[in-house]
Design brief:
Chain lengths: 543, 506
């Protein structure tokens, strides 16, 4: 079809030496796979934007701390969940059984669901866009300033840069805005589609525009960039339309965003489109406030995910493609174990990830993510590097060589539990060890036997007496408590003579103004303020 | 080399291009030659949302410095447009029935009010700068707690008033701007629970860029900024004005960039504004002035000259940064230097910017009869929802504007705009170019007016053929007298023009 060679610089030819930069590592490699043929396996990536609360997705349903400490208000009640592993103490959120064949729970029962708990990366970013970029790029940057220019899928498909456009696009992103995941070194590897009919009608009016050879300039490079988008739209809109017309759905889907997106994916696969990666997205997981319990926003979102995946998997099985299609759920981060004060949860670190399909192992990897130790006073460590998932997809599912996968990801990564979540994965002893997870939970702020945690550091609390000097026995104590507990104030003379407890009461964290009545005559006193096991001393003058 | 900002991270993950920029003029000296029509078009495309041919003609033959000065003085005169009718109305917190109106209806009205101003402003740089500042000092109205329109309006008005003044004053004012206090949690930044959100972005995104400050600086800055709050409802104080709560202000001594902030003055609104906010900004500019200048000039350069400059252009940016510092952070000095320069008028910098949806949509629609609502919806679909950039870092811009989604979408709806015009209107509009009776000259007029660079002969010939639509060229002279027929044929040409890649360049 091509009216124009897609990449103008194609004179480079095949088998070239290319300089390829991943992370900080400059890889100069012979490209043995330029002429590689892809197998026909398909990957569906479901992005849960906003940071899914993994702790309430799979709950540690027999663990008191989940109900009492982490989520006193936002826990999913024990009576509502469905236990999925007695020995690991895990249960599924009731929303995950919504949908065809009991949705995600049904997949678990049928042995078609991998539950991978504690997926993340080191030195986490709590920014949505930065962490999303980290997940999409497949690069963990050394610092905040490091540029993340390309995505892991973009780099994977870069090997076709010098070839003619294939009939089907490499990747399809059902959505509006381009994703870094598909950005290759020179070009975007995904086509954005929402409605194939509309896309076709729009695409057919775009022509190829040639301009006289202008020596390389900003103008010609931007002109070519836009023109190439037009060429791609025109080209792929035909194959997508063709597949859309030829394809069908057998299973029913609910009429909601994610289900509609996945319905379209199934139909395009059935229609013969050879696209390798489909990307679908659901927004709204940033539940800082009003996350809610069983009736809340998060529960509704999980139900949407379950409905969409349940229908899709059943559809794909009925259409006869279930040996060729797997899916994964991805979110930029999990949420903190401790709920916040606004009936919500804040940006956290590691998370739970699902993989589904006939070809994934129906197993639960790792213990509940809330059991992973704290890395600081509010966030958890991670157990599995997210790139381990990518690595296995490239190696097993796409059949990439170890060298090529290493080139795309900038390194090798341990398989999940050193065996992997895809059925056909072969154990590879040459891979590096998995991330080290500390055993002790030294950083949990609410662990009483942790001497280092902020809750036990007196400096966090703040006390000030007004007025100071105190006149006529009466003063007010301004008090800010970092962590709550029983407060006991004892008055001592500077000489050491005790005048007894002048105030004893329980307080929640927060700031207070306490009226205080002092004992004894004029002089210098020391107030010994004890908050549970933390001590603070305040010098006051009484006149 | 300057430190990499988050904005760069967001905008430039796309491929770098290796081009030959050796011959480009790197001089910031004023471009002295009298401006040609093409050069005026270039200047107006960057300084406004789409060119008005009449305005352009009035500038032809003048020197760049004269025209740029005019664009600046015109801006000064337009700084206070009539406010939307609801701008000074208020509600009480009990009037929940009215709230939705203030949250949605009026904000949408505000977007359209703004689009109208963009569309009408053809001879000043004002509106271009207002949108620039909205993408820089980002506030999104439609976050968890929706920011009501009168507060968003006041921020927009601040952008207009401060469009190119002292950057120090701008930073001071935006710090206690209502929408900003709400968007970056200044409202909940109190001494007992400092919220670092604004303090961090003030340094990371608004002034100097990541890597130039420590986490301690963020924490201390947050404490310095405690106690400010915007009044939303009329029963809670003077609505839409920032208030200062003495009891929520951290009176402890803070150390920011090595400077001590002692509260050795009576704590009241005026004193704290002067000794905390103004002092904080002063310390930023004193200690990190060079970094701020590099960061801001880089951003202004990308907005006004080219979004993906190469190393060779860095020298220009460095020189601009020097101007910024030596002018005591006068934004006008920098922008004026850019737009008057030999570098700016170098042919290598013409037609190289990928248009934003505002430039694409408003710039086209301003020539025709198109409702603001239609324009707003089109821009939103193309990824630019006014009052709601995707996140605090603003729009990614550059190549992210042109995707397999937006390019076909733009063609479709620009075509709809063309189809909706009457033939007579189009013919009358095109007559203003003075070339209407000659198909070749008319093609040149249209192509130079709408495309980023004058097309080569081959494409120009093709455009003329499309205009003629099979008629022999000698018949055009007669045909052009009939507005209905000629206007109809002109539609064909315009529809072809909006399909061209260089229509999306400016």
């Amino acid at each position: 079809m091509d009216r124009r060679k897609f990449i103008q610089q194609s004179s480079l030819g095949l088998g070239v030496i290319s300089n390829f930069k991943v992370d900080k590592m400059e890889v100069s490699a012979f490209q043995p796979e330029v002429t590689a043929t892809e197998n026909d396996n398909v990957l569906v990536v479901i992005q849960l934007f906003g940071g899914n609360d993994g702790i309430n997705t799979i709950t540690p349903y027999e663990w008191d701390r989940y109900y009492n400490d982490f989520r006193p208000q936002l826990h999913i009640p024990q009576s509502a969940v469905t236990p999925i592993s007695k020995e690991k103490g895990l249960a599924m959120h009731p929303s995950l059984k919504v949908g065809v064949n009991e949705g995600i729970l049904g997949l678990h029962k049928a042995g078609k669901l991998s539950i991978i708990q504690g997926v993340g990366y080191d030195i986490p970013s709590y920014s949505h866009f930065r962490s999303t970029d980290i997940w999409f790029s497949g690069i963990v940057p050394a610092n905040d300033g490091q540029l993340l220019r390309t995505g892991w899928m973009g780099r994977y498909f870069d090997r076709y840069d010098n070839q003619e456009l294939p009939e089907s696009p490499y990747c399809i992103h059902i959505g509006k805005n381009p994703s870094l995941m598909f950005q290759g070194d020179k070009s975007e590897k995904a086509i954005l589609v929402e409605d194939p009919e509309e896309f076709f009608n729009q695409g057919k009016v775009i022509d190829d525009h040639e301009i006289e050879n202008q020596n390389a300039s900003y103008f010609s490079s931007e002109f070519d960039y836009i023109n190439n988008i037009g060429v791609q739209v025109n080209h792929y809109s035909k194959s997508i339309k063709k597949a859309f017309d030829a394809g069908k759905n057998i299973e029913s889907y609910v009429d909601k965003s994610l289900s509609n997106q996945m319905k379209l994916v199934a139909r395009l696969i059935d229609g013969g489109l050879k696209t390798k990666v489909f990307f679908v997205e659901l927004f709204g997981f940033d539940t800082h406030a009003g996350q809610g319990g069983l009736d809340g926003v998060h529960s509704r979102l999980l139900a949407e995910v379950s409905e969409a995946i349940g229908s899709f998997q059943s559809d794909i099985e009925k259409l006869g493609f279930s040996k060729k299609v797997i899916g994964i759920t991805v979110s930029e981060f999990g949420r903190r174990p401790y709920e916040n004060g606004s009936m919500g949860t804040d940006h956290g670190t590691s998370n739970v990830m699902f993989a589904f399909g006939d070809e994934v192992k129906g197993e639960i990897f790792g213990s509940h993510m809330a059991f992973v130790p704290f890395r600081d006073h509010e966030n958890l460590y991670f157990r599995y590097d997210y790139r381990s998932i990518y690595w296995e997809i490239l190696r097993t599912w796409f059949g990439a060589t170890s060298e090529y996968a290493e080139k795309v990801l900038g390194g090798k990564f341990a398989l999940v539990d050193e065996k992997g979540f895809i059925g056909k994965t072969v154990i590879d002893k040459t891979l590096p060890p998995p991330p080290i997870v500390p055993v002790a939970n030294n950083n949990d702020p609410k662990s009483p036997n942790n001497p280092n945690n902020p809750a036990n550091i007196t400096e966090q609390d703040y006390f000030q007496m007004f007025p100071n000097p105190v006149v006529d026995n009466k003063g007010v104590l301004s008090m800010v408590l970092y962590a709550g507990g029983s407060v006991t104030i004892t008055q001592n003379h500077i000489s050491g003579q005790g005048l007894g407890e002048i105030h004893v009461k329980n307080y929640r964290p927060g700031s207070y103004v306490l009226p205080i009545e002092l004992r004894g005559g004029p002089g210098m006193y020391i107030l010994h303020i004890r908050v549970t096991n933390r001590n603070h001393f305040l010098k006051i003058l009484k006149i | 080399m300057t430190t990499i900002s988050r904005r760069e991270i967001l905008t430039t993950f796309l491929p770098t291009i290796t081009t030959n920029r050796q011959e480009v003029s790197l001089s910031l000296d004023p471009f002295e030659e009298p401006l040609t029509l093409i050069q005026v078009y270039h200047l107006l495309r960057r300084a406004t949302f789409g060119v008005s041919h009449d305005v352009a003609m009035s500038f032809v033959g003048k020197k760049a410095s004269e025209v740029v000065d005019r664009l600046l003085s015109n801006a000064e005169a337009k700084k206070s447009p009539a406010a939307p009718y609801w701008a000074n109305t208020t509600i009480r917190d009990s009037e929940s029935d009215k709230l939705a109106k203030y949250q949605y209806e009026y904000n949408e009205d505000l977007m359209q009010w703004w689009i109208k101003l963009m569309s009408k402003d053809s001879d000043s740089i004002l509106e271009k700068m207002v949108l620039f500042w909205h993408g820089h000092f980002v506030s999104q109205y439609d976050i968890c707690n929706i920011i009501i329109a009168p507060i968003m309006y006041r921020q927009n008005d601040l952008f207009r008033k401060m469009y190119l003044g002292s950057f120090a004053t701008f930073l001071e004012k935006i710090t206690i701007d209502g929408a900003m206090l709400l968007y970056l949690n200044g409202n909940s930044n109190i001494k007992d629970a400092p919220n670092e959100n604004y303090a961090r972005e003030l340094m990371e995104l608004f002034s100097m860029g990541i890597g130039n400050y420590t986490e301690d600086d963020v924490r201390e800055a947050a404490k310095i900024l405690t106690g400010w709050k915007i009044v939303i409802y009329s029963n809670q104080g003077e609505a839409y004005l920032p208030t200062f709560d003495v009891n929520k202000f951290d009176t402890g001594t803070k150390t920011f960039f090595g400077e001590k902030f002692e509260v050795n003055y009576p704590v009241n609104k005026e004193n704290v504004y002067k000794n905390s906010i103004q002092q904080l900004i002063a310390v930023i500019l004193k200690k990190k002035g060079k970094e701020v200048a590099n960061f801001m000039c880089n951003k202004l350069y990308r907005a006004l000259v080219y979004s993906n400059p190469e190393k060779v252009d860095q020298q220009v940016i460095t020189n601009l940064a020097n101007i910024f510092v030596s002018s005591n952070f006068d934004l006008k000095a920098v922008v004026s230097a850019i737009l008057k320069s030999k570098h700016f008028f170098d042919p290598q910098n013409m037609g190289v910017q990928i248009k934003s949806p505002a430039e694409t949509v408003v710039g086209f629609a301003k020539n025709f009869v198109v409702e603001e609502l239609f324009q707003r919806q089109m821009m939103t679909q193309m990824g630019m929802q006014l009052l709601s950039p995707p996140n605090v870092a603003g729009w990614k811009g550059y190549r992210s504007w042109m995707t397999t989604k937006t390019y076909p979408y733009a063609i479709k709806y620009l075509t709809e705009i063309i189809n909706n015009q009457s033939n007579n209107y189009l013919a009358d509009w095109a007559r203003k170019f003075g070339t209407f009776d000659d198909p070749y000259k008319l093609t040149i007029s249209m192509a130079t007016f709408f495309l980023g660079k004058v097309p080569d002969d081959k494409r120009m010939t093709r455009f003329t053929q499309i205009l003629l639509a099979g008629a022999p060229d000698y018949e055009w002279f007669q045909l052009s007298k009939n507005s209905d027929t000629a206007g109809f044929k002109l539609k064909g040409l315009l529809k072809e023009i909006v399909k061209a890649p260089d229509f999306y360049l400016c």
